[in-house]
Amino acid sequence: MWVSGVAEIHGRWIARGLRSMPVPAAAMTLGHVVLGCTIADLERTRRHERVHVRQYERWGPFFLPAYLGASLVLKLMGRDAYRGNPFEIEAYAVDDPSKRSF
Ligand SMILES: [Zn+2]
To answer: pLDDT tens across 4-58, in order?
Structure first.
């Protein structure tokens, strides 16, 4: 399903893949494609995942290495590699106005 220029896809195989990741996810963004376990997950996470779409647009091919690199550095520092990741902090901020940086 296309929602404002972004393809949102869900299904049993996608759900299986997302739930078996190191950090189990309800949804994940790959460029302008958002994979979700269910339609409800896609709707619930839409605002968060749209921030990742904007990040992909900003960083282009460097997004994934930058994201994974930030997580790796955090992990090596003994910090939370997911919640401490600056890309996730920005994405979670859309639902928490007090943490909004823009
Ligand atoms: Zn996220």
So the answer is: 899 999 999 999 999 998 889 999 999 999 999 999 999 999 999 999 999 999 9
Integer CA distances (angstroms), 33 to 3, 53, 54, in order: 10, 8, 12
96 Cα–ligand 1 center, Å: 14
Domain residue ranges of the chain, discontinuous segments joined by + = 2-95
Instruction: Report the C-alpha gap between 66 and 68 in whole angstroms.
Output: 6
Could you tell me the distance, in angstroms and rounded to a whole number, from the CA of residue 23 to the centre of ligand 1?
11
CB neighbours of 74 closer than 8 A, spacing ≥ 6? 80, 81, 84, 85
